[in-house]
Design goal:
Elements (H helix, E strand, L loop, with lengths): L1 H22 L2 H30 L15 E10 L5 E3 L1 H4 L3 E5 L4 E6 L2 E14 L6 E7 L12 E6 L3 E5 L6 E7 L2
Antiparallel strand pairs: 1-2, 1-3, 1-9, 3-4, 4-5, 5-6, 6-7, 7-8, 8-9
Length: 181
C-alpha cells in the first residue's frame, strides 16, 4: 500500500511540473535557462579556482636534508684545475678559514678568526660531472670572494668529519674541510 502512495505522489508531481512548464511564458523559460547556465558557469569557475589554489601551494616545497653538513668546518686544502696544478692550504695562503653551516640554512665564514661573510645557503640536486648521478649541490648567497676556497658546488660528507665541495666542472677544483665541532 505504501508503494502505491509513493508512486501516486510522484505521478502528481510530474503532472504539476508539466503544467507549470506549459503555463510559463517563453521569456520566463528563457530567463530560467539563462540563470541556470550562469550559475553552472560560476560553480565550474569556483571549482577550477579552488582546485588550482590547493594543488599549486608553495608550502609543499621540501628542503633537502642538511643534518650531516651542519657544524663548523675548517678548510684544509683546495686542489684541482687543468693538469691538477692548484694545491692551496692554510700554510701556503696564510689563511685559516672556518665555514659554519647551520640547521636553518644560514652560514658564516671566518677568515683568521674574523667573520668576513654570512648569508643563506641552498641545497639542490644536480647532475654531477664526477659520478654522473644526481648529487647535492650547495649554493651560498653573499659576496665572499676567495680564489682559494670553493663554496658552491657538489657537497659531500666523507666519513663523519670530512666535507668536500667541488665546483662540478671538468678540470675543476675542490676544497676540503675538517669538522671542528
Amino acid at each position: 500500500m505504501r508503494g502505491i502512495k509513493i508512486k501516486f505522489v510522484i505521478y502528481w508531481f510530474s503532472i504539476i511540473n508539466k503544467n507549470v512548464d506549459q503555463n510559463l511564458t517563453q521569456p520566463i523559460k528563457n530567463s530560467i535557462i539563462l540563470l541556470k547556465t550562469m550559475i553552472m558557469k560560476k560553480l565550474i569557475t569556483i571549482f577550477i579556482l579552488i582546485l588550482g589554489v590547493t594543488s599549486c601551494s608553495s608550502d609543499d616545497e621540501v628542503k633537502i636534508n642538511n643534518s650531516d653538513i651542519v657544524g663548523k668546518w675548517n678548510w684544509f686544502s683546495t686542489d684541482g684545475g687543468i693538469g691538477y696544478h692548484i694545491h692551496e692550504n692554510p700554510e701556503s695562503t696564510g689563511k685559516e678559514i672556518e665555514l659554519n653551516l647551520r640547521q636553518n640554512y644560514s652560514y658564516s665564514i671566518k677568515e683568521n678568526g674574523t667573520e668576513i661573510s654570512n648569508g643563506t645557503y641552498e641545497l639542490s640536486m644536480r647532475d654531477s660531472n664526477y659520478s654522473t648521478e644526481q648529487e647535492r649541490f650547495i649554493t651560498c648567497s653573499g659576496n665572499y670572494q676567495n680564489q682559494n676556497v670553493v663554496l658552491s658546488g657538489i657537497i659531500r660528507v666523507i666519513n663523519i668529519d670530512t666535507l668536500t665541495i667541488s665546483d662540478n666542472y671538468d678540470d675543476g677544483i675542490g676544497s676540503g674541510f675538517k669538522k671542528s665541532e
